[in-house]
Amino acid sequence: DLVPVDGDDERSSGCQRFVTATLDALVEYRPSLVVLASSETYIESDRWALEAPDSGDRFTSASAKAAVWQDGLTRTISKLQAYGIEVVIVHPIPKAYGWDPRQCAVARILLAPGTCGTSWQLADANKTRARQMSAESAAAAATNIRTLDVARLLCPDGTCSTRQGGTWTYRDGGHISVAAAAWLTPEFERLLAPSSR
């Protein structure tokens, strides 16, 4: 049921082993809830191809990869549900593509952090996230599960930024900071509360 990722051989095979072992562990231990989240990189980047698990056909176009992703995700959710495991999907975060704080001098980060960050429009980020969010939403609808999109919290008023109110919200272009993760805690608490399940 897993969708093989075809890219850098070492990373691809390591990732595949990790996902397979994780699914096996989930089936064995049967937690009450699993939260699934992934980057849209596998769909949008030319670096990766996806293989259809049934046929082994290899796909490189973003639209074809999104369809394979949706099918694989639906199968994975259904497999977990067959063991009585509830599943929730968290959509990918809006990314600051190309921004890397390591390119800033340490003194600049500490003394003038506002000059080191970047900002971008959520509407632009949504164009990059669109295929994956559509695939995830379709898989969620097919399996009757909930999804969560934290973009409105990370990008208030439609603008995303690596810093908000003097606090770093991103640690690099593709990952949020610990502080931003803490800001999202109430949203996850609401989503995961027994009364909402």
Any overview of this molecule?
There is one protein chain. With 197 residues, the protein is α+β, with helices and mostly antiparallel strands. The protein is 47% helix and 18% strand. It contains 8 helices and 12 strands. The strands form 5 sheets. The chain has a 3-stranded antiparallel β-sheet with strand order 1-3-4. Strands 2-5-7 form a 3-stranded parallel β-sheet, with helices on both faces. Strands 6-8 form a two-stranded antiparallel sheet. A hairpin with a 2-residue loop joins strand 11 (170-172) and strand 12 (175-176). Helix 3 packs across helix 5 (122-143).
Shape: globular
In which order are the strands of the major sheet placed?
A: 1-3-4
> Low-confidence runs (pLDDT<50, min 5 residues)?
none
Strand content: 15-25%
Write the H/E string, N to C: EHEHEEHEHEHEHEEEEEHH
Major sheet: size, sense and barrel closure? 3 strands, antiparallel
Span from first to last CA?
Answer: 26 Å
How many DSSP-defined strands? 12
Structural class given helices, strands, pairing?
alpha+beta
Average the pLDDT over all residues and give the rounded result: 87
Keyphrases for this structure?
alpha+beta; 197 residues; three-stranded antiparallel beta sheet; 8 helices; three-stranded parallel beta sheet
